[in-house]
Design brief:
InterPro entries: TRAP_TAXI. There is one protein chain. With 354 residues, this protein is α/β, with parallel strands linked by helices. The protein has a single domain, classed as Periplasmic binding protein-like II (D-Maltodextrin-Binding Protein, domain 2). It has 13 helices and 10 strands. Strands 1, 2, 3, 4, 5, 6, 7, 8, 9 and 10 form a 10-stranded mixed beta sheet that branches. Helix 1 packs antiparallel against helix 6 and helix 4 crosses helix 5. 42% of the residues are buried.
Length: 354
């Protein structure tokens, strides 16, 4: 099938990236989370987590990326990159191929779960004359850039449903929207937690375009079915049946007794893990709406929680982060003691210290 080639290219990308060196030791480890596009949900989740770290006087740098695959590989090999947000089907894809492909097995070595997050909706914005997922056959469809989770999910879904496209175009959603509106493509995939800014912040013509319902039985057996409520976006008045994938916060298995870089990174991972656990209610109230559906107990099958995460969420853990210094109090005139009170203070100081 024509759409099987993207999956083969994706495996080559994974294997080729494994040869890159892991970060060397460092005296101090700045903290970074790789997220996604500026219009996506991942970057907003990253900013929420940065807000937690700033409560402790530290920054978590939020870095844009192509998406899940780049994020996974960045956690494994990019210096000072302790966290990345990844789609669960990317993890399942790697687990499936790791037994037969030593390159993929090396790619996943050392990468661990920090926290399971939320379900992401599979958005497919298409022309109105395309009625459902099956209607994508022989159409020109943007499936995301090659390092993205959108690319992998779109490729897998098309393969599972047996759909052949006229063209599978590696175009990012932000670039695909104007091409759809110009009639240059027929639809585009975007995996993002609703509400996604690309649909909320653009004036999309409801008479020309709609979100495709995804009711294919095979896809609903592999992915979690869900309903996007009507009115989630201005152009989408009615509920839409679709499927979802889970977003997961990933980290690396740092050695708390290893070199300086590993020790510093492990402390950072432990500190942020402690903050997430103790501030989960605040995140649900004040962060991106997707925090409200986070189930911290829903660990993806076949993956382990990082030791530094477990250290941070242990009830006896003492955080290494330093709270911001309080504002210096305004100097006030010292009270004037009477001679009697001054004598009292001298006696107390002599007996117990001041």
């Amino acid at each position: 099938m024509r759409h099987s080639k993207p999956l083969a290219r994706l495996t080559l990308v994974i294997v080729a990236a494994v040869g890159m060196a892991a970060p060397a030791s460092a005296q101090d480890a700045p903290m970074t989370i790789v997220t996604g596009s500026p219009t996506g949900t991942y970057i907003q989740i990253g900013r929420d987590l940065n807000g937690l770290m700033q409560q402790c006087g530290r920054d978590l740098e939020v870095v844009e990326s192509a998406g899940s695959l780049e994020n996974f590989l960045a956690v494994r090999q990019r210096p000072n990159t302790q966290f990345g947000i990844v789609q669960n089907d990317v993890l399942e894809y790697m687990q499936t191929f790791s037994g037969d492909d030593p390159g993929v097995a090396r790619a996943i070595a050392g990468v661990r779960i920090a926290f399971p997050l939320y379900e992401e909706e599979v958005h497919i914005l298409a022309r109105r004359d395309i009625a459902d997922f099956g209607g994508l056959a022989d159409k020109r469809v943007a499936i995301g850039v090659e390092d993205s989770g959108t690319f992998l999910t779109a490729s897998l879904m098309l393969s599972l449903a047996g759909i052949e496209l006229a063209e599978a175009l590696p175009i990012a959603p932000a670039d695909a929207l104007p091409q759809l509106e110009a009639g240059e493509i027929d639809a585009f995939f975007y995996i993002a937690g609703a509400p996604a800014a690309i649909y909320s912040e653009n004036d999309i013509d409801a008479e020309q375009f709609h979100l495709l319902p995804i009711q294919d039985a095979t896809l609903q057996a592999v992915y979690a079915p869900a309903t996007l409520p009507g009115g989630t976006y201005d152009f989408q008045a009615d509920p839409v049946e679709l499927v979802t994938v889970k977003a997961v916060l990933m980290t690396y298995e740092y050695d708390a007794r290893g070199n300086a870089y590993h020790q510093a990174s492990c402390r950072g991972v432990s500190d942020l893990s402690s903050l997430i656990l103790t501030n989960i209610d605040t995140l649900r109230e004040e962060g991106h709406p997707k925090w409200q559906s986070v189930d911290l107990g829903d660990i993806p099958t076949g993956w382990d929680i990082a030791a530094c995460v477990n250290r941070g969420i242990d009830p006896g853990y003492v955080s290494n982060c330093t709270p911001p210094a309080p504002e210096a109090p305004q100097p006030q005139a010292a009270p004037t003691d009477s001679e009697a009170n001054a004598a009292y203070r001298r006696s107390i100081c002599a007996a117990v210290g001041c």
